[in-house]
Design brief:
This protein has about 425 residues and is an alpha/beta fold. It contains 12 helices and 20 strands. The chain has 3 domains: about 160 residues, Adenylosuccinate Synthetase, Chain A, domain 1, CATH 3.40.440.10; about 90 residues, Adenylosuccinate Synthetase, subunit A, domain 2 (Orthogonal Bundle), CATH 1.10.300.10; about 160 residues, Alpha-Beta Complex (Adenylosuccinate Synthetase, Chain A, domain 3), CATH 3.90.170.10.
Length: about 425
């Protein structure tokens, strides 16, 4: 099968957008299957940066069909803002289809997201306040509204009105917050429903038929494996499954239909928000990496926490995703460092820890065990072949291969599309 899943193998922000763009230009179909507008991909083409949150990155391939799957929580406001921006950039948007089973994000989800987070106080989890969690909550408790509901104006207006009434009661009585304007909201979203109609399809059928006919289908991951609701650093996680298994349920296809899983890995580690971070650098080195790598969130603008490469995390991601290879991103960011460290295991009260633990209190007590390696102190942004990289740089790549047991098939040496060394084509 010509199917490839691209997964973030750390806490997100690994550079998935660039790899999705690279493989997306070869794809017949690109599928987004989980998350919502809390995710962000940036792709630089001809010097212009394109930031996408809901629209699949395959939109930059004029031949690819782009699918927003049933596992995505769909925000019409964000979607149509992106559609307008793409149109202004001269990019066609008639190859996008949205699942008729996708749950819809409404303004009350935004309001409740912010109130829930404020209510946690010092125990806040760092939500983007995009309404993602509350929308998934409605989905799980079976009170959510789906895009198919929007296709019947009368039914949709009634159902949305009932939900606004219920949510306003929570807002007013529990949080003493102002209610949502019911009539204005219904009017706004009836207009979105009208605009959305040409995009709505049973996308599971489209994906299934594309796979059966031998087309190249790319599954676009959002966020990172350590943010998975079940397998991530709970509770500092997202509300969906950004692992390969989530791509099948989130696109409406069966297990076994994804043939290759490419793990996207930064040459160092970053995360946003709270939670234990064993290799975190709270020093000048961490600050240098942040500034060189422009490590600020696409969606939130928040500065990212910085640490050395952590093989424990990547090996855990490899196991839960069934990764078959690695794409190593932002290697050029480390070019000016005399010494580079790689974490191969943790230590906890004198005991070596090789497997990523579930208990966050235990994890917070872990110390990194490092292998130190010499830096290369050379500009590698112009390298286009593996042999062009300095010897210490190649040694670093090969050490990562050794620690993870996976081939590094791609190396990014700059933000531009062409600043990529492909060691093996897999799609």
């Amino acid at each position: 099968m010509n199917t490839l899943a691209i997964v973030g193998s750390q806490w997100g922000d690994e550079g998935k957008g660039k790899m999705i763009d690279y493989f997306g230009k070869k794809a017949d179909m690109v599928v987004r299957a989980q998350g919502g507008s809390n995710a962000g991909h940036s792709v630089v083409i001809d010097g212009k940066r394109h930031s996408l949150h809901l629209v699949p990155s395959g939109i930059l391939n004029p031949e690819a069909v782009n699918i927003v799957g049933n596992g995505v929580v769909f925000d019409p406001r964000v979607f149509f803002a992106e559609i307008r921006q793409l149109a202004e950039d001269g990019i066609a948007t008639d190859r996008i289809f949205v699942s008729d089973r996708a749950h819809v994000v409404f303004p009350y989800h935004y309001m409740l997201d912010a109130l829930y987070e404020e209510g946690r106080g010092k125990e806040d989890i760092g939500t983007t306040k995009k309404g993602i969690g509350p929308c998934y909550m409605d989905k799980v408790q079976r009170s959510g509204l789906r895009t198919c509901d929007m296709m019947d104006p009368e039914k949709f207006a009634r159902k949305l009105g009932d939900q606004i009434d219920a949510k306003n009661e929570i807002l007013e009585k529990l949080y003493q917050a102002p209610p949502l304007d019911k009539e204005a909201t219904i009017k706004e979203y009836l207009e979105y429903a009208r605009m959305l109609a040409p995009y709505i399809r049973d996308t599971g059928v489209l994906v299934y038929e594309a796979i059966r006919s031998g087309k190249k289908v790319l599954f676009e991951g959002a966020q990172g494996s350590l943010l998975d609701i079940d397998l991530g650093t709970y509770p500092y996680v997202t509300s969906s499954h950004p692992i390969s298994g989530g791509f099948t349920t989130g696109s409406g296809i069966g297990i076994g239909t994804i043939s290759d899983v490419l793990g996207i890995v930064k040459a160092y580690t970053t995360r946003v928000g709270k939670g234990p971070f064993v290799t975190e650098l709270l020093d000048e080195t961490g600050d240098r990496i942040r500034e060189i790598g422009h490590e600020y969130g696409v969606t939130t603008g928040r500065p990212r926490r910085i640490g050395w490469f952590d093989a424990v995390i990547v090996n855990y991601s490899s196991r839960i995703n069934g990764m078959t290879s690695i794409a190593l991103m932002l290697l050029d960011v480390l070019s000016s460092f005399d010494t580079i460290k790689v974490c191969y295991a943790y230590e906890h009260n004198g005991t070596r820890v090789d497997h990523y633990p579930a208990d966050l209190d235990f994890l917070a007590e872990c110390k990194p065990l490092y292998k130190e390696m010499p830096g290369w102190n050379a500009d590698i942004s112009g390298c286009r072949a593996y042999e062009d990289l300095p010897a210490p740089c190649r040694a670093y790549v090969e050490e990562i291969e050794k620690m993870t047991g996976l081939p590094v098939i791609s190396i990014s040496v700059g933000p531009e599309r062409e600043a990529t060394i492909m060691r093996k084509e897999i799609f």
